[in-house]
Design goal:
By secondary structure, the chain is of the alpha+beta class. 40% of the residues lie in helices and 19% in strands. It has helices at residues 3-6, 58-70, 167-184, 224-243, 289-297, 303-312, 318-324, 328-340, 344-362, 373-384, 390-403, 408-414, 423-436, 438-445, 452-462, 469-481, and strands at 8-19, 74-75, 78-79, 82-85, 95-98, 105-106, 109-114, 117-130, 134-136, 145-147, 154-160, 196-206, 216-221, 251-256, 261-267, 277-278, 285-286.
């Protein structure tokens, strides 16, 4: 980075909208499912027809509290909704029902990990609101169509403090937030389908300054990678303007991932532009201590907790623990494996190695992996006992178990793959290998001890992988001394 750009500090706050996985919408019984023919998941209430009244979705409140507790937030017990007034074709009522001065979750934080280390990012609030519909611009050359299936779907908006300072930190934050909502099963985190969306408020200031610069909001980013790229592009744009003597205008910009550039959409609205006032058709609601305690008791083990346990109790590296905890299903599978074996590192290597490779090749989730955790643990035990090598277990036995799940010892026996630990059988092979490479033997005796791996490899090849590696090393060492 040139001296010009290194003079500045980037300040970023993210607003993440996550659609909640409820069956129905926030204020009516219309389906909240993604997809469906346009305007089929609607009713008079979704359309905001006169005389219709909204009714609160209890499950949406539960999911919001669940997320808030997982983010260490304070839960607001006395809640009410407000009307946020603005006019857009995909907002059928002409206003959005949201929370304004009393968000259901306040404060809190999310822990992120980057190359620079681990730190916490402070949260301002998490509040409930209904989603808007969607404009379709590619259906007709002259007109834009309106699909209101999404209108009224429950959202939480997760607002961070301006506590992020680079595209990399924003990437880590969004990755962790997506992992969290998936663990909690409150949102599927699919940015491509729009069930998780992110707006970035970005400003720059000279390093050492405590005054925030003029912020610009960047929208329409459909992947975590796009958010990172958009931030980097916007930071450079702002610094270039300041360095050329210009002034940053507070505005909303849209990011075009195809060109890697942004363009202005509108000047940024202030809160008073929305004319917030309490929603008259929805009564305030109170959350009891008992209700909050029940939700807290239902929380699953979360990535932060699992990573701590795997590194401190099971001796995994932080990297290995994070790979295992990348998604809830993988962590659950690993948990079942280590119930049947205490070889935690080996279990981690198998799950993040051969198992994950097969899943990636097949394009499947681990819930569809045909080998049960108990059978994988039995295979791990078989390798640890020295009855088969890891190479044979991963390349021959595991594929056989995938094709037809069964006891790994039985499969190894049937396929004649059990390791040979009989010295009388291995010694002749060793003699054959050493006779084949007299110059290498001489070099080894002359001090090139690294050649041992060559000899072991040749013995394993001639024995078709069945020679016990430990015994092979011992017998080779004895032979090479003579």
């Amino acid at each position: 980075m040139s001296d010009i750009y290194s003079k500045y500090e980037t300040v970023i706050g993210l607003e993440v909208h996550a659609q909640l996985l409820t069956e129905s919408k926030l204020f009516c019984s219309d389906s909240a499912a993604f997809g469906g023919a346009p305007n089929t998941h609607i009713s008079a209430i979704t359309m905001g027809h006169p005389g219709t009244l909204p009714r609160m979705n209890r499950k949406a409140a539960e999911y919001a509290i669940k997320l808030g507790l997982a983010c260490h937030c304070d839960i607001e017990k006395d809640n009410y909704f407000a009307r946020k007034n603005y006019f857009y074709p995909d907002l059928p009522k002409g206003y959005q029902i949201s929370q304004h001065t009393a968000p259901i979750c306040k404060n809190g934080y999310l822990t992120i990990s980057t190359d620079a280390g681990t730190r916490t990012v402070k949260l301002n609030r998490i509040h409930l609101e209904e989603d808007a519909g969607k404009l379709l611009h590619d259906q007709d050359p002259q007109y834009s169509y309106v699909d209101l299936n999404r209108a009224g779907v429950p959202l939480v908006e997760i607002v961070s403090e301006p506590d992020l300072h680079s595209g990399d930190e924003a990437y880590a934050y969004l990755t962790e937030m997506r992992r969290l909502v998936r663990y909690l099963e409150v949102c599927d985190g699919n940015m491509e389908e729009g069930s998780m969306r992110c707006d970035a408020n970005i400003s720059v200031r000279l390093k050492g300054s405590t005054t925030l610069g003029t912020k610009v909001e960047v929208k329409n980013m459909n992947s975590i990678r796009s958010v990172k790229k958009a931030i980097e592009v916007e930071v450079k744009r702002q610094i270039d303007i300041i360095e050329s003597g210009g002034t940053i205008i507070q505005e909303t910009r849209s990011f075009d991932a195809a060109t890697g550039s942004s363009f202005s959409m509108r000047s940024k609205e202030e809160a008073n532009d929305y004319r917030y006032f309490p929603e008259p058709d929805l009564a305030p609601f109170h959350l009891s201590d008992e209700f909050i305690a029940q939700i807290k008791a239902s929380l699953p083990a979360l990535p932060e907790e699992l990573i701590e346990r795997y590194t401190t109790q099971y001796g995994l590296t932080e990297y290995d623990a994070r790979v295992i905890c990348d998604d809830k299903a993988t962590a659950a599978y690993f948990e079942e494996v280590i119930k049947a074996t205490s070889h935690y590192k080996a279990a981690s290597n198998w799950v993040s190695g051969p198992v994950k490779s097969w899943l990636n090749e097949q394009g499947k989730d681990i819930s569809l992996f045909p080998v049960s955790p108990a059978l994988l643990a039995a295979l791990i035990e078989l390798v640890d006992a020295g009855k088969v090598s890891f190479s044979i277990a991963s390349s021959r036995i595991l594929p056989a178990m995938i094709a037809e799940p069964g006891d790994p010892l039985g499969i190894a026996t049937r396929l004649n793959l059990l390791q040979d630990n009989n010295a009388d059988n291995i010694t002749p092979i060793i003699d054959e290998v050493l006779a084949k490479y007299p110059d290498k033997v001489a070099a080894f005796k002359g001090g090139k001890k690294g050649l041992m791996s060559l000899f072991v490899g040749e013995v394993m090849k001639l024995s078709k992988g069945k020679a016990d590696p430990r015994l092979t090393n011992e017998l080779l060492a004895e032979r090479l001394k003579s």
